[in-house]
Amino acid sequence: MTTHVDTPKNIAILGASGYTGAELVRLIATHPGMVVRAMTADRKAGMAYGAVFPHLRHLDLPELTKIEDVDFSEIDLVFCALPHATSQNVIRELPNTVKVVDLSADFRLRDPETYAKWYGGEHTAVELQKEAVYGLTEYYREQIKSARLVAGTGCNAMTGLMPILPLLQAGVIDSDDIIIDLATGVSGAGRSPKEGMLHSEVSEGYRAYNVAAHRHLAEFDQEMSLIAGKPVEVTFTPHLLPQNRGILATIYVKGEAQAIHDALRAKYDDEPFVYVLPFGESPATQHVRGSNYCHLGVIPDRKPGRVMVFSTLDNLTKGSSGQAIQNANLMLGLPETMGLELAPLFP
Amino acid sequence: MTTHVDTPKNIAILGASGYTGAELVRLIATHPGMVVRAMTADRKAGMAYGAVFPHLRHLDLPELTKIEDVDFSEIDLVFCALPHATSQNVIRELPNTVKVVDLSADFRLRDPETYAKWYGGEHTAVELQKEAVYGLTEYYREQIKSARLVAGTGCNAMTGLMPILPLLQAGVIDSDDIIIDLATGVSGAGRSPKEGMLHSEVSEGYRAYNVAAHRHLAEFDQEMSLIAGKPVEVTFTPHLLPQNRGILATIYVKGEAQAIHDALRAKYDDEPFVYVLPFGESPATQHVRGSNYCHLGVIPDRKPGRVMVFSTLDNLTKGSSGQAIQNANLMLGLPETMGLELAPLFP
Amino acid sequence: MTTHVDTPKNIAILGASGYTGAELVRLIATHPGMVVRAMTADRKAGMAYGAVFPHLRHLDLPELTKIEDVDFSEIDLVFCALPHATSQNVIRELPNTVKVVDLSADFRLRDPETYAKWYGGEHTAVELQKEAVYGLTEYYREQIKSARLVAGTGCNAMTGLMPILPLLQAGVIDSDDIIIDLATGVSGAGRSPKEGMLHSEVSEGYRAYNVAAHRHLAEFDQEMSLIAGKPVEVTFTPHLLPQNRGILATIYVKGEAQAIHDALRAKYDDEPFVYVLPFGESPATQHVRGSNYCHLGVIPDRKPGRVMVFSTLDNLTKGSSGQAIQNANLMLGLPETMGLELAPLFP
Amino acid sequence: MTTHVDTPKNIAILGASGYTGAELVRLIATHPGMVVRAMTADRKAGMAYGAVFPHLRHLDLPELTKIEDVDFSEIDLVFCALPHATSQNVIRELPNTVKVVDLSADFRLRDPETYAKWYGGEHTAVELQKEAVYGLTEYYREQIKSARLVAGTGCNAMTGLMPILPLLQAGVIDSDDIIIDLATGVSGAGRSPKEGMLHSEVSEGYRAYNVAAHRHLAEFDQEMSLIAGKPVEVTFTPHLLPQNRGILATIYVKGEAQAIHDALRAKYDDEPFVYVLPFGESPATQHVRGSNYCHLGVIPDRKPGRVMVFSTLDNLTKGSSGQAIQNANLMLGLPETMGLELAPLFP
């Protein structure tokens, strides 16, 4: 059994029957500062977690319950892995003694109108929306430490923001000409059965989806414009990969390659989970699989002034559940890296 | 057995032990106008082809031999699927009564200096290099009909050239700002054992390779500059997919989306193997798998004047062996589509 | 375009929106003796087929309709690719001038009680059930030629029956000790979204399913007992593979290996689609992918008297839609192999 | 950084450039009782480990060296992940103050003649061969605690032995009729480039290999005969799966299913890494991926007296490097489960 610190924090996971829920449980299983006290899944209430996710059947976990059956008075922090739109309704009703890390899209956007535009409906918890801190740890670390509600970033959004924000901040790229070509594994689409996510449809195949219309564009706009101090709009084409985990963004920017590499190193050299590869190298999704690491690379194009910047992370770990635990560690006063130093699984 | 036309053409395949060789044999197996009379593979001479490629063991094929043991006097056309650099030495020695479709890179570039720069050595058959016709059927059809030597295009090159050439020709895009982001299956790397192509290294992973340095850049430069009437240099980032077959290019251009779609339709609506998807749709590699079809799509970016153009084909079929047979049909006076109308294999 | 025979047969496909339907269309696309005149899919009536299966968008096909909108008076043969239980109700209502190849399980079992036991309900077309011929071409060729209704075999059933029936017939194995260990690709599970068939659940994984309870056991019992002239009950464990196409059965029998190999060769050496590998070799699913071929192999165990017999085929081709066309060819007086000689797709 | 116990043990890994070497490093990265002090790879001496395995580039590791450059006086335990035959020559020369866990096949067989028969040559360290303890922890725990040299089991051997040994010991199965049908991922074949292990050859395919001739048969014979007290010879057919990690054995035995399930539970209910599924359930490789767990299942056949027993584990973890660390923990006086409680990675 994992040896815990003296008084591990009590955790509840709402919406534990999806992949991000299972990833939280996987990571907390060997996290010395957290213990899962409650897990909910409305339609699977009453089931043992090992019946829903047999890979975790060896763990000693509470039974799945409905949300209304959770005693939140004993809970220090809630991870909310519910679907978009549902999440805001549930979090609104939680006692405000409990800290919350939300993995949905509900609290990523600060502006209610922007939210309504991209998600097709009014936000039902506008006050909380204002309070929520965007969970990009490497940029909002201090706010996260004192936050009650942290909004997990979009997994694609994070993959793009990590390399671009330092470049905008350092002023080393043209903010009007940023193209993010991105490829993601299928686990980001969740566990709900969909024809397009069947093995027969996905394997041995590659295609774009939601071209020029992906909702993570809203996060790109919000965060990039903020850091640049002026409106920034990127071009963004996501693609679906025939693999489960991993996102890789190939980003086309204009600037000077060495200055770009320098800016990334200046920003990330002291970060525990971000690794800037040597100049001229590019990363691979299989080398961060199952881990909380993000690898960045810079390669100059043969055309002067054009540069390719690469970014990869595991969508279920650094892109969602690992990031959520990193933020929770900060909110709970635990060491930021606690429970997250698992090395990538390769091959 | 396939019913043949009255006098099928006699075919030799040099270098039949690789994937492009096997793809030629697969396609010729049901081609009514061709019969394989000789197959060579120096290190496997004497072996039955079914021992090298068990999926073709049901076919009645000649034994593998060395090149010097082929009687070329009975051969109408040679497919040369030998490695780069070897190919030119072999083709130079063939009797000039025989027509040749070369699948290597040896005769793709018209300029000896350009060849030397990209392939790292002097060309040994400069006269033939001048004579060779570039095998992009949809652009060189008439020259191919009367050619003795046709040079198969690079598979990545073809995937990019098909959508871009009509746009340069029609003058509907900015020729100074073309970015080709491309992903390809592993079969293009061939059957020689390499650590990086092991299943354990490739599956569940995605990464760029040869960034800004891929040799197919030379073909892009040559063909785009020619059609544009001025030097055109693209930005090109190839990636390796965890799948066997299929290439998809996502191309970022500046222009007006509808004009771009119109230009593609004007060029390709009468082509037998090129299909321009309805405006706003993008293609998928799994929908051309194993076929000679190329699917193109156009989607406008949210940023005015920026457009994404998509192109997909099967690297072993339209990207190499299918294209080779299409060209051979023309050279031999057979119907251009003969033997190539196999529908894609999905799932 | 495919060159057709003088008067190609008119074909209707009922239930064309599933994988077996698409495989029928793929194969008929280059079949010179068949033309698809009607295609149905109740919930997708009115749609273009290329919108349902984009890999077939280049084909000139009729629009999807409801079954009641098909004019069967112009149809020579119907392929019925509807779900089990639905199929019998539809076929019962077809005019009896039309020939039918049913790909469901509804007419595989001759005995109504056996049907009710395995499929959990009374058969609604018992008279047709009696009339139907079991579609194992290599065993029922003559009956199929004159049949009005042919029942396609189960894909797993076929993979096991092909190697075992000749051995029972020749009396070279112990009929009381037959173990069929089988692994199948996921496309056999169809296109309906199911959690267990998602890419994330299937890829990088292997597991048994329906152990000792798979419905294809009923076909094994029926056909093996018939040929052996006494009750034969096999042990059967199917497994799910992380791949789309292909079934491989590893069959453990007691007998003398050379006699077993001889019995297979005696039965199949003249069959156009069955290939018995040299003694001591075993087949691979990737070598029959997308084709109508079945490969068989025999290897003696180190324990005297114990033998492993291997059988592989593509579940969507020889295991269902290819077999269906082979039978339809016979029913329509066409050459048996017409349209089915496509070589396997590898890699 | 991982918080270590007060005096972590000093570890050397010989042959660190293969997959089992990388798996050792991955596991030790978060093992609080071990620190890697030396790593060797003859042909890659001088390289940083992160250049050989980029997924581990974030770790602070010693540079790769040659074996002769290791100072073994500071090493507590050596993991030897060298190829078969090489291993014995290297281990023979190590100072006998150092403990050794060997992951090769060199010390698995106790009898020199048996070794010579299966591995095709004389053993060069016969004295050590006698001394070595077979690393099947659940059976040799006490001997391992005091051993100087422990021989890691074959990964396939372990998958079969775990479920069968308790049944032979309890006398609940017929020892003359045991069939092990097994499927394994490709990572067991190692990182050396081989045509048969290319992605194009393996993916979308399934086939048997080394039928009736696999060297792990020698381990089956040795351990089963020992525990049964009489010669036991199993039938064994390994297959290659299109996935990286995971082995699943489907074992056909004769006996009473409930008694078999009881015997497994009696043996393993207190074991930390072995999980016997509820009666009637079967395991899946994807549910132990990347972990040290072994899942067992029992399902009765429809034929009375015939039972299917299932066993799965990750070949690189419980099947080799995880098992090696479990044994090393025992040899070093550390808690047996230390560093090994990582939950499986799914999806």
Q: Please work out how many helical segments of chain A DSSP would assign.
A: 11
Q: Could you say how many structural domains of chain A there are in total?
A: 2
Low-pLDDT parts of chain A are: none
Please report the first level of CATH classification, the CATH class of the largest domain in chain A: Alpha Beta
Rounded mean pLDDT score of chain A: 97
Shape of chain A: globular
Largest interface: A-B, 45 and 45 residues
How are the strands of the largest sheet of chain A arranged? Answer: 3-2-1-4-5-7-6
EC number (chains A, B, C, D): 1.2.1.38
Active site (chains A, B, C, D): 155
Family (chains A, B, C, D): Belongs to the NAGSA dehydrogenase family. Type 1 subfamily.
Pfam family, one (chains A, B, C, D): Semialdhyde_dhC_1
Topology summary:
The structure is a homotetramer of 347-residue chains.
Chain A: E1 9-14, H1 19-28, E2 34-40, H2 49-52, E3 64-65, E4 77-80, H3 86-92, E5 99-102, H4 112-119, H5 126-131, E6 133-134, H6 137-145, E7 149-151, H7 155-170, E8 179-184, H8 199-202, E9 207-208, H9 216-228, E10 235-240, E11 247-254, H10 257-268, E12 274-276, E13 294-300, E14 306-313, H11 317-331
What does this protein look like?
- 4 copies of one chain form a homotetramer.
- Chain A is α/β, with parallel strands linked by helices and 347 residues long.
- Chain A has 2 domains: 9-153 and 318-331, NAD(P)-binding Rossmann-like Domain (Rossmann fold), CATH 3.40.50; 155-315, Dihydrodipicolinate Reductase, domain 2, CATH 3.30.360.10.
- The first copy, chain A, has 11 helices and 14 strands.
- Chain A has helices spanning 19-28, 49-52, 86-92, 112-119, 126-131, 137-145, 155-170, 199-202, 216-228, 257-268, 317-331, and strands at residues 9-14, 34-40, 64-65, 77-80, 99-102, 133-134, 149-151, 179-184, 207-208, 235-240, 247-254, 274-276, 294-300, 306-313.
- In chain A, the strands form 2 sheets. A 7-stranded parallel β-sheet of chain A has the order 3-2-1-4-5-7-6. A 7-stranded mixed β-sheet of chain A has the order 9-10-8-11-14-13-12.
- The longest helix of chain A is centred in the middle third of the chain and has 16 residues, at 155-170.
- The radius of gyration of chain A is 20 Å and the shape is globular.
- The mean pLDDT of chain A is 97.
- Chain A binds chain C through residues 19, 186-187, 191-195, 197-204, 242-244, and chain C through 19, 186-187, 191-195, 197-204, 242-244.
- Chains A, B, C, D: It catalyses: N-acetyl-L-glutamate 5-semialdehyde + phosphate + NADP(+) = N-acetyl-L-glutamyl 5-phosphate + NADPH + H(+).
- Chains A, B, C, D: InterPro entries: AGPR, AGPR_dimerisation_dom, AGPR_type-1, NAD(P)-bd_dom_sf, Semialdehyde_DH_NAD-bd.
- Chains A, B, C, D: It is found in: Cytoplasm.
- Chains A, B, C, D: Keywords: Amino-acid biosynthesis, Arginine biosynthesis, Cytoplasm, NADP, Oxidoreductase.
- Chains A, B, C, D: It comes from Neptunicoccus cionae.
